[in-house]
Structures are given as structure tokens and as C-alpha cells.
């Protein structure tokens, strides 16, 4: 049997040494290079950088011009993952949507672990996947607690000992089913062996994710907690870290910003009939030739 790839900056090791991880969405090798190379000096000898990368099902399907309905399987996305790992050493957290059928998920766990993925996130919805930020505006159904716990257990049984992490994502707050149900589900998922819990919310004030963290920590002080502050963008990394989160994922911003930049350039060329007016928005030719080692 092919052995699992042990990548530099193992995700488990990082979670054991850092209080909270900064994770950035990537959808291509160039975006992964940017994530790995982005550093900000915050003081003499002090820097902040991204600790890991996020492979988003939304951005992976969007960049292919496909709807975000779980249309891409891990098999469809595996070549892109390998291309990213060819140029980037940061550990990857993989967005697996619902994980599909439990039997399929067990196989995909082995496949992703062998490719070097550090963690896989599965959400507790079933049926045709719709993006969570639609909330109750579209029909979305949650899996039963026992069925989802069984999927977690099957995934754990398929991986190597202490191998790729399996993180359970709870959609109860997204679907307005209340804090008590979210707690019931997440406590059950942790009991079933989930290596981490992702709590998702579309409320802009962020208060319910902060409350969830407070309540969950009473029961599980050490299980990694993950959040995705797309809706509550005003909450800072430091605030989320202080609230008890161990992983903060900026889940779609690289593709969203790239799209806006490309759209402005494309319409600018049409508007002016030339590229002069948009050149200042573009990477210089010399810079792009020097961007990748070995180009010159």
C-alpha cells in the first residue's frame, strides 16, 4: 500500500504549537505561492504569515465555471491539489462538502491522505448541496446525528493512525435551528471522534459563533475549533483567537479578489480600446518573468 505523504509543517504539529492558525483559500498554484510568500512585519523581528491553506469546493468549482453543488469529487480535484503541493509546502485543509456517501468518503479519506492533505472538513448536510450562505432561502437538509457520526467513524477507520484530521462542520446555526441543537450535534461529533469542530454562521454580528465557542469549551477544552468569518468580517483574528478558536479560515477571498481585478481590466480595455489605462493595475512584465524561479 502507498504510504501517506508527510508534508512539512504537519497540521497536527502546528495545532500543538500554535494557539491559532491563519488559513487562506487557494485555488491554483500561483495563489498558493502568494499565500506562502505573504508576510507582514508587525515589529522588530516579528512577523505574521499564513500557517496553512484551504482548498475550497466553492472556489474550485467557480474557477471551472461550475455551480457549487458538490459537482467535483476529490478525484476531480486531486490533480489541482498535486499541482499546488508542487510549489507550496504549507499544509492543506480540504473542503469536502458533505463527504458524499459514507462508503465513498472512506475511500476518499485514503486518497486525500496519500496526496498529503492535512485535514478534511465534512458538513452535516445531505441531499443536493447548496452553499451555506444561502441559509433558509433555499432548501437544505441536515443529516441525522447518528448517520453523520457514523460517517466520522468510517473516515477515522480509513486513515492511518494519527493521520489526516477529520473535522466535522455543523450547519445548525446556518439553518436557524438554534444554539441548543448546534451544541447537541457538535458534542456528539466530538464524542464520535472528530478531530475538530467547525461551526458556521451567516449572521453578520458574529455573536452566535462567540457564544458557541464559550459553551463548547466547557465540555471540550482541547478539541480544535474552526471558524470561517466570511459573514462576520469585522471580527479580527485576535478576537476569534481570544474567543477560543484554533483555526480561522479566510475561505474564498483570493478568488473573489482576483475576479474583481480581472473584470476591471477586461472592461477597461474595452472602454479605452487599448491597455495603457489598465497597466497600473497589472503586474509588470519584468515582475511576472521574475515571479517564478527558472523562468529567465
From TrEMBL:
Species, as recorded: Pseudomonas vanderleydeniana
Pfam families recorded: PEP_mutase
PANTHER family assigned to the protein according to its UniProt record, in alphabetical order: PHOSPHOENOLPYRUVATE CARBOXYLASE (PTHR42905), PHOSPHOENOLPYRUVATE PHOSPHOMUTASE (PTHR42905:SF7)
Record InterPro entries: ICL/PEPM (IPR039556), PEnolPyrv_PMutase_core (IPR012698), Pyrv/PenolPyrv_kinase-like_dom (IPR015813), Pyrv_kinase-like_dom_sf (IPR040442)
Designated name of the protein: phosphoenolpyruvate mutase
UniProt keyword annotations, A-Z: Isomerase, Metal-binding
Entry EC no(s): 5.4.2.9
GO molecular function: metal ion binding; phosphoenolpyruvate mutase activity
UniProt superkingdom: Bacteria
Family: Belongs to the isocitrate lyase/PEP mutase superfamily. PEP mutase family.
Amino acid at each position: 500500500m502507498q504510504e501517506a505523504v508527510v508534508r512539512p509543517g504537519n497540521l497536527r504539529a502546528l495545532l500543538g504549537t500554535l494557539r491559532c492558525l491563519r488559513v487562506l483559500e487557494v485555488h491554483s498554484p500561483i495563489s498558493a505561492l502568494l499565500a506562502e510568500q505573504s508576510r507582514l512585519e508587525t515589529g522588530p523581528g516579528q512577523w505574521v504569515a499564513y500557517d496553512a491553506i484551504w482548498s475550497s469546493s466553492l472556489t474550485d468549482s467557480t474557477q471551472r465555471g461550475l455551480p457549487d453543488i458538490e459537482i467535483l469529487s476529490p478525484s476531480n480535484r486531486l490533480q489541482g491539489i498535486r499541482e499546488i503541493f508542487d510549489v507550496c509546502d504549507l499544509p492543506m485543509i480540504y473542503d469536502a462538502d458533505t463527504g458524499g456517501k459514507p462508503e465513498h468518503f472512506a475511500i476518499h479519506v485514503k486518497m486525500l491522505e496519500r496526496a498529503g492533505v492535512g485535514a478534511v472538513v465534512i458538513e452535516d448536510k445531505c441531499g443536493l448541496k447548496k452553499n451555506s450562505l444561502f441559509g433558509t432561502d433555499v432548501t437544505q437538509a441536515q443529516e441525522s446525528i447518528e448517520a453523520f457520526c457514523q460517517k466520522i467513524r468510517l473516515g477515522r477507520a480509513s486513515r492511518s493512525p494519527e493521520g489526516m484530521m477529520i473535522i466535522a462542520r455543523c450547519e445548525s446555526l446556518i439553518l436557524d435551528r438554534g444554539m441548543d441543537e448546534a451544541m447537541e450535534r457538535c458534542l456528539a461529533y466530538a464524542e464520535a471522534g472528530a478531530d475538530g469542530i467547525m461551526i458556521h454562521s451567516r449572521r453578520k454580528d458574529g455573536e452566535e459563533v462567540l457564544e458557541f465557542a464559550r459553551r463548547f469549551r466547557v465540555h471540550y477544552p482541547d478539541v480544535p475549533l474552526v471558524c470561517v468569518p466570511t459573514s462576520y468580517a469585522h471580527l479580527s483574528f485576535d478576537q476569534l483567537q481570544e474567543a477560543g478558536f484554533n483555526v480561522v479560515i479566510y475561505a474564498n477571498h483570493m478568488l473573489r479578489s482576483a475576479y474583481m481585478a480581472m473584470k476591471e481590466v477586461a472592461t477597461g480595455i474595452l472602454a479605452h480600446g487599448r491597455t495603457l489605462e489598465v497597466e497600473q493595475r497589472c503586474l509588470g512584465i519584468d515582475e511576472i518573468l521574475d515571479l517564478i524561479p527558472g523562468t529567465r
